[in-house]
Each structure stands twice: as structure tokens, then as C-alpha cells.
Design goal:
Helices cover 33% and strands 22% of the residues. By secondary structure, the protein is of the alpha/beta class. Strand 9, helix 7 (200-204) and strand 10 form a beta-alpha-beta unit. The radius of gyration is 20 Å and the shape is globular. Bound molecules: 2-succinylbenzoate (OSB) and magnesium ion (MG). The site of 2-succinylbenzoate has 12 residues, from loops.
């Protein structure tokens, strides 16, 4: 069944976070999110562009995705016959970079295809899992005491693994205290590229805390140094920032730069590339998990669908709406069971009703494209 997109509506919404989120590259208090609604045959599908408010995680940011979507991505999609959602990515492939902008549109078209077929998105992308294991990502706190308290709260809520952000000055000693207090939990750290190979001896000190993995310790665009680091660490290295395509994952695996890969829909440009990346990792016995980008309910629901693919065997950063939002733009919001799992919805598309009135009240900028 072909799809011809006849209208795209972009909405830029602003949503305050319940609590600031701090990584090695800075603090976020409020999200500026671009949502994509793509129409065909009177039906619409939704996608979320996962770019941050500043070009610090990657070069994309809310301000860059807007003109790219309007001037480059939408014109290459509108009124072109797509044989299926899987064809979307190829139409914008010659645009260098801008994966999150392109991925937001691609995700909307997958959601639309699911709705046109009246089936849940997880089924459309070929997933199977009916319940996904969940972890949490905890930002850098003002004190170790606050971090320990947060971890306690998340464990009590049932989450299966804890990821804590680290940076120079907030690493080995903090992890030591967390391990001392919680000796038995599944624990991992994420450095968001805050170190270099000069820190190798320092990072090696993390080995004694039997972490599940250390995520993206070195440069955002490096694979080779990660291979050197992995060669001398017992702790598995997991790559996030530097894996922007299935090809990058293949190279990282070949170089033994990582034993685990974090897959983010936006970073890799959408579902089609995420599936290819998933398959390459699966073929090399490298487990994957779904990363998060502080998404609204829409992006969160897409992450749930992605996590139903078979090689998503590790708990991801897909957690309950209420950890980030006082009120989400979907209703009901995403909830996590006391076993630390999310039950996958069977409703058509991404599976959660949008709270239209609330969503519209958050819109700060809108563009209707024909
Ligand atoms: O590196 O995984 C990351 C949030 C923003 C940018 C990068 C990252 C993160 C997170 C949060 O760790 C994950 C979430 O959405 O819960
Ligand atoms: Mg990360």
C-alpha cells in the first residue's frame, strides 16, 4: 500500500521539566520540542524530533531542525509516492547529517502507515515483545546525598537498572559511594564524551565497581580511541553519540570499540536505520538498548515500539512520563509497572491518545506545509 503525504504540520512546543537534567555538557530545565504531523488520505501520523535546545549533545538543536524541515526535508517528502514508510529515509538521505530532523518525519510516516493499516506501530516495524524492561537515567546532582536518594526512589518504583551521569570531578568517588550503598543493583554510567585517552588510568578505576557498562566515555565522533580503551577496560564500553548509522555500528564492532550499543531513533535518522543497526548488532551478538532524549509522550511511545524488537535485551532509558512531566501531551501518560516494565499498547499507531487541547496550549511556533 503506497503512501502520498499531502500535508505536514510542524509544531514547536515548550514544556518545563519536573526537575533539571544535568549531563557533562550542561543543564536542561525546559524542553523545546518539534513535533511532526504527517497527513495522507485524511489520516495523520505523529513523530518527534529529538534534538535538544542547544547543539551540545550533537550539532542539531531546536533552531536548526526548523529550517531544515521546511526547506529540505518536507519538500522531498510531500506529494511523492512512497511504496511504504520504509522508503522515507532514502528520499532525504543525500541531506548530510540532520538525522534527528529527518528521523522525526520518518517516525511520523511509520506511525501514519500503522494507522492506515489499523495496527499498532510495534507490529508495523516488526517488533514482538509485549512488555519492555525499563531503566532510568539520573543526571548529575548537587550532592551525593541527593543522588543516593534519587536512586532509592527509582529502585522503590521498580526500575530494573540505574544509569548515572558522570563527568570529571563527579565519577570514581561518587560511583564508589553508590556501589557501597547499593551493592547488588544493575548500575551503569554515561559520560557523554567527557574524557579522553589521557584519562585511561582514571577510567580503569571504575572496573572495580562491576558496572554493566560505561556509555560514550570518549569523543562524540571517535571510534578508534574507544577501541583502545575497551582493550584495557574490563567494563564493557557502550557507544551512543558516535553511532549514527548501521555502518558506524559495523565499524565499531569490527574494531572491538564497544560490546553494547545504545540505539536512539533520532540520532540514527529513524526506524529503518534503527532496524538495520539492530540487525547488525544482533548478528554479532552485541546487545542493544533504547536510549532516550527527554522525549514527550509521543517520542517516548515511539521508543517503546522500537524496544519491542528482539535484540533490545537490556533495560533502556525508556521511563514513565511523570519522571519528566507534570502533565504529558498524551493521556493516559506512560506508566511503569512495579516490576519495572512497560506494557506495550495494542492501540493503532504509537498507541496513546494525544491530549490535543493541552498540546495546542504548549505551541510556540507552527508551520503548515503543503
Ligand atoms: O546521553 O543518553 C544520553 C538525555 C539527553 C541527551 C543525552 C542523553 C540523555 C539521557 C536521558 O541520558 C535519557 C532519558 O530520556 O531518560
Ligand atoms: Mg548517552
Amino acid at each position: 500500500m503506497g503512501i502520498k503525504i499531502d500535508q505536514i504540520i510542524l509544531r514547536h512546543i515548550r514544556m518545563p521539566l519536573v526537575h533539571f537534567f544535568e549531563t557533562s555538557f550542561g543543564r536542561t530545565r525546559e524542553r523545546d520540542i518539534v513535533l511532526v504531523e504527517a497527513f495522507a488520505d485524511g489520516v495523520s501520523g505523529w513523530g518527534e524530533v529529538t534534538a535538544g535546545e542547544n547543539p551540545f549533545y550533537s550539532e542539531e538543536w531546536t533552531g536548526s531542525v526548523w529550517p531544515i524541515l521546511i526547506d529540505y526535508v518536507a519538500p522531498r517528502i510531500l506529494h511523492h509516492e512512497l511504496s511504504s514508510a520504509a522508503d522515507t529515509a532514502a528520499r532525504t538521505k543525500h541531506i548530510r547529517g540532520h538525522h534527528m530532523a529527518r528521523g522525526g518525519v520518518e517516525a511520523a510516516i511509520w506511525d501514519l502507515q500503522a494507522r492506515l493499516r489499523n495496527e499498532p506501530l510495534w507490529k508495523t516495524i516488526g517488533g514482538a515483545r509485549r512488555e519492555i524492561p525499563c531503566g532510568v537515567s539520573i543526571g548529575i546532582q548537587d550532592s551525593v546525598e541527593q543522588l543516593l536518594e534519587k536512586i532509592q526512589t527509582e529502585l522503590a518504583a521498580g526500575y530494573q537498572r540505574i544509569k548515572m551521569k558522570i563527568k570529571p570531578g563527579w565519577d570514581v568517588e561518587v560511583v564508589r559511594q553508590v556501589r557501597e550503598r547499593f551493592p547488588g543493583i544493575k548500575l551503569m554510567v554515561d559520560a557523554n564524551s567527557a574524557y579522553t585517552l589521557k584519562d585511561l588510568d582514571h577510567l580503569k578505576k571504575l572496573d572495580r565497581f562491576y558496572l554493566m557498562m560505561i556509555e560514550q566515555p570518549l569523543a562524540h565522533d571517535d571510534i578508534v580511541d574507544h577501541a583502545v580503551l575497551q582493550g584495557s577496560l574490563d567494563t564493557p564500553v557502550c557507544l551512543d553519540e558516535c553511532i549514527r548509522s548501521a555502518h558506524h555500528a559495523a565499524q565499531a564492532i569490527r574494531l572491538k570499540a564497544a560490546r553494547i550499543v545504545n540505539i536512539k531513533l533520532g540520532r540514527v535518522g529513524g526506524f529503518a536505520e534503527a532496524r538495520r543497526l539492530h540487525d547488525i548488532c544482533e548478528g554479532n551478538a552485541v546487545p542493544v538498548w533504547c536510549g532516550g532524549m527527554l522525549e514527550s509522550g509521543i517520542g517516548r511511545a515511539h521508543n517503546i515500539a522500537l524496544s519491542t524488537l528482539p535484540n533490545f535485551t537490556l533495560p533502556g532509558d525508556v521511563s514513565a512520563s511523570k519522571r519528566y512531566w507534570k502533565r504529558d501531551i498524551i493521556d493516559p501518560a506512560i506508566e511503569v509497572s512495579s516490576r519495572g516494565t512497560i506494557h506495550v499498547s495494542d492501540a493503532p499507531g504509537f498507541g496513546y491518545p494525544i491530549d490535543q487541547d493541552f498540546l495546542e496550549s504548549l505551541v510556540v511556533r507552527r508551520e503548515v506545509l503543503h
